[in-house]
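Each letter names a residue; structure tokens follow underneath. Both lines appear below:
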Amino acid sequence: MGFVGLRKTGMVVPESLGAVAQVRAERLAGGAWLERDQAVAVCFAITACVVHFLFNGRYGYFRDELYYVACGQHLAWGYVDQAPLIAVVARLSRALFGDSLHALRFFPALSSGAKILLTGWMVHELGGRRCAQVLAGTAMLLCPIYLTMDNFLSMNAFEPVLWMLCAAIALRIVKTGHQRLWLLFGLVAGIGILNKHSMLFFGFGLFLALLVTRQRRVLRGMWIWAGGLLAFAIFLPNLIWEIHNHWPTIEILRNVDRVKNAHVSWLEFIAQQALLVHPLGTPICLAGLWYFLRSREGDAYRFLGWTYVFLLLQFLIFRGRIYYLAPAYPMLFAAGAVAIEASIERHGRNWIKTAILAPLAVGGLVATPLALPILPLDAAVAYANFWDVKRVRVESESSGKLPQLYADMMGWPQQVKVVAGVFRSLPAEDQPKAAILAKNYGEAGAIDYFGPSYGLPNAISAHNNYYLWGPQQYTGEVVISVGFPIGELQPIFGRIEPAAAIWNEYAIPSENNLPIYICREPKMTLRNAWARLKFYG
């Protein structure tokens, strides 16, 4: 019998198997793409993107999205309540794709796939194979906090990608010894700070983790410090902006902690992490933490487990919101999947794979309507009430009928329509000098976004970054106020007339029964009143 030699792998195939067998052997020898373990992560990533493209056009514009778009029209190196990158993303999205919900949410949808690809890459680097890839991919695809955050425009969609890219680079450095990769780490970390300042917590946590593990030896090299210097250089323009504007981000964080955040105990904070990653996904994260902190296989990567621990401690001490820790979970999903796969193979019990995956998939699908806007509104209200999700809150204010995320998507075009009716009711000679003064950035952002179709001027507001943009050219001779209680207007205006009220049964309570007044006879100019109206929070 003759044989056909496959030079690349040394395999031999009997000629009698024929051409089909030879082709199959060549495909195997060349590592057919779909038969590689890494292909699993790619398939899960594509699925995640498709899911978000299908559902990210539902319900309505989230309050913060409208604000980010307004910031995108005033590009700067910083903003009162956010780092500068999200404004660039908002402006780029509109320039490339237009003003639809799908357009604004295009890049967040892509980030959902990027998270899964990074998780799969870490699984591969840690020695995981197909079972681990499937387990990690399923957990990531159905993780409630990522389903939520990747479905609308926010820096929170990109935050896990940047954190985990840094973690993956650090893992690669430890595995290969290529210290110059710290420059790449610094580049990503710098961009991460411009996306959200929480990257500083990640960087500090990683530094402490390196310090307390045997990987502290990398701190003796020059490249990690060069990477840190590069990250600082990228962050520097934003830091200068903060200094020039008297540290507004610190001011707003203090105000939010004092009046807005829903504070929980340390035990509640830790317990609610299980709701973010799904109760059935939590064991995978715990296995990942064990893998990094206790297992022999994870000894070289012990610093990643300690990074998570130090992040948790920072957010507990500074009373962070429960989702602040969410960007760290992909690395725990990856390590946990590897640990579980190794345990299954060690004990030879393949049935455990199905026993783990089936409940995880079913449980994830059950939770999905709470994270994605896939149900009609009345059905979403009933479903949220059934699972009592209102007890999980990040803000002290009640959200009304819907969970807070969905409630903040309701009523914005309707608000602007009512405001437009009031504006058109003004005498023609008053309209050019009439300012629309909004109580908060959501109302102001909605007017700026939807108002041009009604012929409305841009709004002014003293809330967050709108305060820095000032009262523009308006003196206060004629003002349409939106959302202000009359008591806040009386010290500024001598004549205040009720004009309309706004109501939407699904909107957040603070945006219901919203008064609109026409204000005249100013007691002071708007510029002089601006400091009185200022609110960072």
Summary: The beta strands are 3-6, 11-14, 434-438, 460-461, 478-482, 493-502, 514-522.
